[in-house]
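Internal ticket - ligand job 321, adenosine-5'-diphosphate:
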Amino acid sequence: MEKKRIAVLTSGGDAPGMNACIRSVVRNGIAAGFEMVGVIRGYNGLIDNEMVSLDNRSVGNIINKGGTMLRTARCLEFKTEEGMNKALENIKKNNICGIVVIGGDGSFRGCRSLTERGVPAIGIPATIDNDLAFTDFTLGFDTAVNTVIEAVAKIRDTMASHERVSIIEVMGNRCGDIALYAGLCGGAEYIVLPERQWSVEALCEKLVHGRELGKASSIVITAEGGAKGTALAQEIKARTTMDPRVTVLGYIQRGGSPTASDILLASRFGMHAIKLVAKGIGGRCVGVKNGQLFDMDIIEACDMKKEINQELFEIAEILSR
Ligand code: ADP
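stdout (structure tokens):
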């Protein structure tokens, strides 16, 4: 009898840890007795029938690599009835009995559509933004925060030598988690988040006060969804005698080797997802809460509202004095 096959794909924005997760999905799937297939370029590969067989060796030497060996892309056609039907035809033709999707909330909605049409699909949260409320952490977030902290330390050297204010704009889309965690761990004087009220006046006051207290330099970390770095610099320049320097970290935050924490999470998520798909369960996503893995309905998960961690913000506030 022909072996049942499970497919794995990466979709939406790439994130460090996706490769480690593909490796875990493939090796756990094979250990559970399935044949494994990699789908190229997210949902596009299902529509275009672009798939590759994956064995244990195909996922060797990728554990520490950023990006995704399966490539990733957005796929508008998958949202149409015609696109979905093409995908379903190819899924049937390739004898695929379940799919693991590694991506963000957009990709999760695709999982739901597949499951509703009889193909069990499980979502694994992967995005540097950490913008999914149902899980404490998404794959790639820890790596991105560490990348930012490293950059902040380098920028701090120059700013302290020149006694300047530095504004560092970080990614996160509409979520302030990268700014919050990197701000706290990088010792920023001020953190601008989309989720919290803030004012230029209070920011300037804090910077001026910092000078009076003898601070050689000040670091302001702003989330891209909170305030743009260049606009912030202009506002500060107009209100004080300071002339801040702006760094927009950009895509450097998306790449690089995953941290141990992200590799661990990727490996655990992959195993949990295979356990579900192997039982024919779909329409769920895997997450981590207080260190424990769990799964829940994928649409309920997407609809949860993300809130900022107030405790962390308060700590950062006190430690920046
Ligand atoms: P992310 O997964 O990072 O949030 P997107 O929001 O761009 O990224 O979604 C990735 C892909 O998921 C889309 O290009 C599309 O193929 C698929 N997708 C998004 N929303 C839906 C939906 N409602 N139904 C089916 N597929 C969807």
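Auto-summary: Residues 11-13, 43, 74-75, 78-79, 103-107, 109-110, 113, 127 surround adenosine-5'-diphosphate (CB under 6 Å). The chain has two domains: 5-140+258-303, 142-255.
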